[in-house]
Amino acid sequence: xxxxxxxxxxxxxxxxxAVVARRNYIFGVIRRVFEKFGYAPLETPTLENLSVLTxxxxxxxxxxxxxxxxxxxxxxxxxxDVVKEEVTPEDLIAGTRAxxxxxxxxxxxxxxxVPFARYVVxxxxxxxxxxxxxxxxPVWRADRPARGRYREFYQCDADVVGxxxxxxxxxxxxxxxxxxxxxGLTDHTIKINHRRVLGAFYQALGGEGTEIDLFTAIDKxxxxxxxxxxxxxLERGFSAxxxxxxxxxxxxxxxxxxxLERLLAGFVTAGVAPDNATADGYKGLQDxxxxxxxxxxxxxxxxxxxxxxVTLARGLSYYTGxxxxxxxxxxxxxxxxxxxxxxxxxxxxxxxxxxxxGFSFGVDRLYDCLEDLQLFPEAVATTTRCLLTNxxxxxxxxxxxxxxxxxxxxxxxxxxxxAGKLGKQFKFADAKGIPYVLIQGPEExxxxxxxxxxxxxxxEQVVTLEEAITELTK
Amino acid sequence: xxxxxxxxxxxxxxxxxAVVARRNYIFGVIRRVFEKFGYAPLETPTLENLSVLTxxxxxxxxxxxxxxxxxxxxxxxxxxDVVKEEVTPEDLIAGTRAxxxxxxxxxxxxxxxVPFARYVVxxxxxxxxxxxxxxxxPVWRADRPARGRYREFYQCDADVVGxxxxxxxxxxxxxxxxxxxxxGLTDHTIKINHRRVLGAFYQALGGEGTEIDLFTAIDKxxxxxxxxxxxxxLERGFSAxxxxxxxxxxxxxxxxxxxLERLLAGFVTAGVAPDNATADGYKGLQDxxxxxxxxxxxxxxxxxxxxxxVTLARGLSYYTGxxxxxxxxxxxxxxxxxxxxxxxxxxxxxxxxxxxxGFSFGVDRLYDCLEDLQLFPEAVATTTRCLLTNxxxxxxxxxxxxxxxxxxxxxxxxxxxxAGKLGKQFKFADAKGIPYVLIQGPEExxxxxxxxxxxxxxxEQVVTLEEAITELTK
Lengths: 474, 474
Prior knowledge:
The structure is a homodimer.
Chain A: H1 17-36, E1 40-41, E2 47-49, H2 50-53, H3 58-64, E3 67-69, H4 89-94, H5 96-103, E4 104-108, H6 113-122, E5 131-140, E6 152-161, H7 167-183, E7 188-194, H8 195-204, H9 211-219, H10 221-235, H11 240-250, H12 256-270, H13 275-297, E8 306-308, E9 319-328, E10 337-342, E11 356-362, H14 363-372, E12 386-388, H15 393-408, E13 413-415, H16 422-432, E14 436-439, H17 442-447, E15 450-454, E16 460-463, H18 465-472
Parallel strand pairs in A: 1-5, 7-8, 12-13, 12-14
Antiparallel strand pairs in A: 2-4, 3-4, 5-6, 6-11, 7-9, 9-10, 10-11, 14-15, 15-16
Helix pairs in contact in A: 1-7, 7-13, 8-13, 9-10, 10-11, 12-13
């Protein structure tokens, strides 16, 4: 076997011990909050049938799914495979589109929502509804790698399906708030809006253009400003009068409650909307009022972090109710979380009418925020707490029962595996970020004592084993 | 989008909440033991370059690697990809072998050892040696699915590289023992042997056949017995006299120490081995003696669970020192763990001479053992501890501060999200395995009290919120 210079694929990453520990800290905070709210863990396979994935993410999404070659001789007919047709030379010459369905039947998980919908449909007979699940797993996208954009990354989703109760929306706000507060990301804004409110805007404009065009344009307000959005609306077939009417509605000001009341009045006085659209908008505003009432009932007290943002649109087309997005204000970073209610998640798999609401945290972005703001607790960085030094064969043997007792007390510890110079062993502890070194030379051994050195301060104290354990388990 | 009946690929699994909780229990036990011994977590990407994977697992292994199609138009030249050659119609007609390297450059992680070796080589400049890492991640093999054989399954590896110290081998025995004991799998046997001892056997037979043929035959002793192994040895070019000599050596009896001494004597008196082979076998036996000495130093007291098994061979060709395997005795199941020392893990990636030792737990088999023996703790099965009932809009609102206080006390709890009949809500709690239900009707609300019902016993007690929290946090 000739030696080769190894590498990893573009857009993928190795996570060394310090990074894994920090990522696990984030996962742990999220997991504990999810579980405290009654969400239970689900894990789905990395490999999904392409028949499940294809057509769920739009044309662009289809292209970005990683496809896995059928095993064995993938150009020949596969016994027991879904696609049994043999690949012909003509297919191959015809190119990708003709060949693909015949040589690849599986793909890598692209998000956690579609596998969740598939799971609910396949297990509807045995699941207890409302079904609350969370899922923390990697997904893969054949996107062009860029700064902050990876081909393999984790999503942390929580969804509840099988209930229309707006209690779920209120609890999502609570969960978002608790995760961010626990992580120390206190300067955040949880934006909330409702698809029906956006729908009422569309109706109020008099039925020009398309709803999705309107949402897409509004979604860009942050980036391109009012003028840019107006220009885009005109290009997409809206009139100048409609654009003006839209900005009258969007310009509503005040706190959450004031905005709700002013919009309710605005829909009435606008006078341009057909009755059903106004009713639709009313339903959206009433939903938001109910969410507010639940939050008050919970004693929610972070109102400065919650914003009714009528310009929030969210890209995904399947949302039908409340929508959410989180921005960390003191870091230059896109949204770290988003979600919303959907009415027909499982329709594509033959189970219509399953309403649910869910949201997702982006762990890579949270990680970058915590790093930028230096919010990782120091204790997260290391695993081993104490290194025992190894002078010679005799001291090595004498340290073994000490090591056993430290570990029995729950202290992650290791004995340097080779006898030798102390300097090298201190350097080892330092490089690994091990905070304590326990030393026993012949003199200390005779006295039944140890030196416990704190590497950060260089401070040494003479201690018994019991005292060392007390110090190390503090 | 037409409705379809969804499915998951053969050999893959969804893990619902109860199973995830039980699997996480196993992972948690393993992780805590690994960390207590100073091993730190590493995670490598799911996708590896095929150039890294190919040729590391033998010809059969090459076939079993899942290959991922290049993204975009995979039949056309890819900018920035490693393989830039365009696929021609002739290539396609020529079939799999000619096309594969051009249309797929990435594969799914096949084990955790090769990615670990790659990581060590890529990061040798910054790592601190000896480097102890553990890795708990899924791997994928395009094997024919069967009972207990999956295409996606988890491995839990711990390895230390950059030291020859046999302290590591002794600590592996301790870690194996602690994991199994913590899981309640007390009736187990940790088998240990040494490749050099096996090598000395081979030399002692007079240089007939090949070493790997001998190891393969010995490995089958459990399954095909002495006669079967003798037959196989004759077929593989060994003489009947050599086979008899082998069984004289293999028949050594006694406890660990007695076997060591008798083998040492046996190698001397066999008189048939060339000097260097005897020395080789001596080195192996001396290594095992040193491991024993370390274990005694640690106060290891599970000698009945440790066996010097001279017939243990382990399939993998890269082992060069001590080898390990674990069998659970009171369950009908293959080995749940194995490992050994290797001298040249990173040679294939251009970094020779890195010695290390490691082992791996098979989580699926451990899971089946715990299930067969009913060893999963009951508390592992559920997440939500308490369901709050929802009578009507008024009681729903009144329950919100209660829910907040329960969660603040760390009690995973949920309010049934829809007002309605209590019977349905009790059924929900029962189906989800929620152990407690907290009820507050108008009467209890007036008195500032609750009914706390234990579902398993049907017992109800009238309590204050403080009393409920005390009971629920027990």
